[in-house]
Design a protein that fits this description.
Structural class: mainly alpha
Mean pLDDT: 88
Helix content: 55-70%
Number of helices: 14
Number of strands: 4
Oligomer: single chain
Radius of gyration: 23 Å
Largest sheet: 2 strands, antiparallel
């Protein structure tokens, strides 16, 4: 609203600092501060409201230290995150920007799915919630909306970066094309210019138009897979106080930097990365996202006063996935969000190995002491148990596990940037 007023009437107003709203860095900083304050100020009120509504977490006794003390802690705290993201954007964001609009749609879309999941858990007093197939349908639906919009919208374009040789010494120079093209290209590490075109997958098709269409369809398929994988990974990571929120904030900071660099033609040319006109508005969104998470951690850090629930975790995963897709960094997600994928993978490995050993030996065996992975470190080793990885012997305190996962996430974020320079 404020940015819209600035665009409509700013030229007729004359007061000191009126042009500050024209700077992405200023609006990003202001958005971060507002979202953080909203989370801090209204977070406590929302928590008290949830307590009065008796929206408490259902906890099963899994033999983990301090687990039963969490019973009754208010859940659905993801509402705090969603509100703290959306309100500053409505005030400061450029609501005519297609990238920002898609991020707002993704936030509300996944928030609704998570809310329905939490609501069913609380209504029926169980841990099942919304059936898995309905979650997947929702995730696929969001992937289709984002992928097809990127395919068909004339506002979503890019400028290619190429490396040319100049002068007698054959020195190289990065040249950014003046032509803005519609192409299913993305960023990929370890290759020159870091660009990958999904049409390469359909280069075997003789008809150029058909090959382009199939290339975009391949891109939409990847979008769906990324949205579902990251969303489910974040959902599984939300098992310890502050773990999912802190990890998501670290990933969000990395994506913010990528969006800022990719949305600036000077930095894009200098760093030899893809330039995406209009994507600089994503920096404003990322600032609101990080501010909301930092404010939420005020109440969610150990010992947590509120849990985000699926309202928060599914939303965070969907946001990070769609954000990476819009700035054409989805193929960096496996490294940047490796913590989420390890949580996902640990569950799949545990279930598959248990079924295999039960069928072969008549007795189910396990790889980890418990899954998702963070619970493995939380549980003490049982002598003689059929567990492949029965280490560490003693349980690690919850707060220490969370901080160590944060450190790993910081390392992964740094490695993600490093891979772009290894060619």
């Amino acid at each position: 609203m404020i940015y819209w007023l600035y665009e409509q009437f700013g030229s007729g107003w004359d007061f000191p600092g009126k042009h500050l709203l024209g700077y992405i860095s200023f609006r990003a900083g202001l958005t971060f501060a507002i979202s953080l304050l909203i989370a801090l100020v209204f977070g406590q009120r929302i928590i008290r409201r949830l307590q009065r509504m008796q929206v408490g977490e259902e906890v099963r006794n899994l033999g983990l230290e301090g687990q039963m003390q969490k019973k009754g802690t208010p859940t659905m705290g993801g509402v705090i995150i969603i509100i703290s993201i959306l309100l500053p954007l409505l005030l400061i964001g450029n609501l005519r920007n297609i990238y920002l609009l898609l991020m707002i749609v993704a936030t509300i879309w996944m928030g609704c799915i998570g809310f329905l999941d939490d609501y069913r858990k609380l209504k029926y007093h169980n841990k099942d919630g919304l059936k898995g197939k309905y979650k997947v349908i929702g995730q696929v639906g969001l992937g289709l909306v984002v992928g097809i919009t990127m395919w068909l919208s004339p506002s979503i374009v890019m400028s290619e970066n190429t490396e040319v040789m100049r002068g007698p010494d054959h020195s190289t120079e990065i040249v950014m094309s003046n032509e803005q093209i519609k192409s299913p290209q993305t960023t990929i590490p370890f290759v020159k210019n870091n660009n990958f075109n999904y049409q390469w997958l359909t280069s075997w098709v003789d008809n150029a138009q058909a090959a382009e269409t199939l290339g975009w369809l391949a891109f939409v398929l990847v979008v769906i897979i990324v949205v579902a994988a990251v969303s489910n990974g974040a959902n599984l990571t939300d098992g310890l106080d502050g773990l999912c929120a802190g990890t998501s904030a670290i990933i969000g900071i990395a994506l913010l930097i990528m969006a800022y660099l990719g949305g600036n033609v000077i930095y894009s040319s200098y760093l030899n990365i893809m330039y995406i006109p209009g994507s600089e508005e994503m920096v404003v969104y990322a600032s609101a996202f990080i501010g909301a998470l930092v404010g939420f951690l005020w109440y969610n850090a150990f010992p947590a006063q509120v849990f985000m629930g699926d309202t928060g975790s599914l939303t965070l995963g969907g946001i990070l996935a769609v954000f990476a897709i819009l700035i054409r960094k989805e193929l960096l997600i496996p490294l940047l969000c490796l913590v989420f994928f390890l949580e996902d993978l640990s569950v799949m490995m545990q279930v598959a190995y248990f079924k295999y050993t039960k069928k072969r030996f008549g007795e189910g065996r396990r790889i980890f002491k418990m899954t998702p992975l963070h619970h493995h470190f939380q549980k003490a080793a049982v002598p003689g148990a059929n567990v492949k990885w029965n280490f560490p012997v003693n349980p690690i305190p919850e707060s220490k596990i969370v901080v160590r996962f944060w450190i790993v996430s910081i390392l992964l974020a740094a490695l993600t940037f490093v891979t772009l320079k290894i060619r």
